[in-house]
Amino acid sequence: MTAEAGRPGPLRVANCGGFYGDRLSAAREMVEGGPIDVLTGDWLAELTMSILAGNRLKGRPGYARTFLTQMEQVLGTCLDQGVKVVSNAGGLDPAGCAEAVSALAERLGLRVNVAHVTGDDLIPLAEPPVHAGTGEILRETPLTANAYLGGRPIAVALEHGADVVVTGRVTDAALVTGPGMWWFGWRPGDLDELAGSVVAGHVIECGCQATGGNYAFFEEVPGLPHCGFPIAELHADGSSVITKHPGTGGLVSTGTVTAQLLYEIASPRYLGPDVTARFDTIRLEQEGPDRVRITGVRGEAPPETLKVAVTCLGGFRNTMTLVLTGLDIAAKARVAQEAIWARVPRDSFEQVHVELTPLGPHAYKPGTAEPGTPGTGTAHVGAAGTLDTDAGRENTGDARAGETGAGETGAGDAGAGETGAGDAEDKGGPETTGTALLRITVMDSDARKVGRAFSSAVVETGLASYPGFFGLTPPADASPYGVYWPSSVDARAVLPVVTVGGVRIEVPYVPPGPLLSSDLYGATGDVTDHGAAPPYAGDLTSGPVRPLGRIAGARSGDKGGDANLGVWVRDPAHYPWLAAFLTVERLRELLPEVGRLPVERFALPNLHALNFVVHGLLGRGVAASPLLDAQAKALGERLRAVRVPVPS
User: Fold this and answer.
1) What confidence tens digit (pLDDT) does each residue in 48-93 have?
2) What is the pTM of this model?
3) Which of 110, 301, 397, 527 has its CA at a distance of 20 to 30 angstroms from the CA of residue 151?
4) Per-residue b/e over 103-117, b at no fewer than 16 CB within 10 Å?
5) Strands 84-87, 164-166: pairing kind
6) Cβ-contact 191, 197 below 8 angstroms
7) What angle do CA 168, 170, 174 make, to 5 degrees?
């Protein structure tokens, strides 16, 4: 423990980026906009690891180069003000990134102590990784395999005087937990304190999503184009206040914080390498304008395993998108496919995915061959051009069967759950006009098959297809795609190493006590509902019919090949209705793309929220998904647009 450890809070941890490609000026804004103690940023989404692996294969750096641009802008100021920098921008090459930061500092005439954390890279693997969800063994050769490290190595680097800490794959929350360990002297057994820091880290990890960005009730957010990035004021007991610099745009409210708490989670027991944080114990309080206090978080021992992100090359893909307009949308989709497959046989590809997405208030009803109620859903088109109503089927790899590809799902007849554009009513009768996107993706291990041979064949149909033919994609070569393969490893088998000042420091795993099983809720079946719902005595069908989003917010995203969908109500009086109404089976009705896929529902009464995990919706991960919404970012908004009987 260093002299700094145990000093009073708050520790002000600022975020300056939620993904590789976020606002470049954010680091300068956070350093110059007000007092902070630590500057962090999250560059490593699961998709980013595949991108960096591709860069490395091409001889480019395996780290996030935009981090260096930001450091050039703020490094001198950080040193002057004593602001520590902690970043996972090291990606697949934290040592190379740290060396680049040192070279930058030398060029700027600055003396800086740069540390880097390694040990997450598990290549070469001792044995083929087992899929954490399905139990399958990976047959392909892994490109990358990285264990999710915790905050302890970051704390060690800071304890040894690092000004800048560069990591590879750590948990997103570790960027806050690590500095908290260093500042307050938390030990492995301080589970509640660690859990509180994990929650704070989860809130700020995605940048402006905590301060009004992508918020369901976005019209309430002032100055959204100039949204400020979040700050977590962390206290010694693990509590925190989420805020932002004064004078910046955006909003910090219990609503914006709730939305981010529900983002990309599964069980309320949020597993991590340092602690298991109980999200069902979180308490939120609006302390003042743009200040939300988080208290009450309980912690449990972490699991005995670490999550491992494995990526491999899945093959090659190509996508062509056509626009269908006017009458007879389904028939035009059929004609378009027939013309294309006459030039390049459908069964020559290993996988074919056809997605028909209606646009606008007069789009035909997805899931049927006839126009109907205005829709905002997506239909998947079978081999003969008919809409695939067998939602949730697993792909067999047989393109002739008209499956949706790589474990993806089709959209069935939405029935009563069909969505509308606002409160518009379809009065077009049997000849409703519409516009839709016909998106055709082919996938194969042979790049030549899905390259120009396919895309040029689509272009060749331009004067011999449906009326009003035009496309949005030019003919192009095939591109490789990666597969995300979640796995796990015994935490004792991973040895993080901190290199600082030329000294190599090993950080062995120290369990805090009895370890927790990672399978807390049992095996996942087709329908699993966790958590007791409060009783609701009212009539679920008697209220006025309005879009669900008029009383409920939602945020959704990807968790590997799964999708997470969090839904909350702002009026606590509406939560018993939400918990009774929005069951797993109701979700299948309202979002037909869910189909028969396994779904888990978790209740979080403390947040007036439900969280759904749709297993397999994104197939083999974001990089491999042929879906238009490959990261399930819009899944929540599609749900909010559904018209349902709501409490009066």
Assistant:
1) 888 898 888 889 999 999 999 999 999 999 999 999 999 999 999 9
2) 0.87
3) 110
4) ebbeeeeeebbbbbb
5) parallel
6) no
7) 130
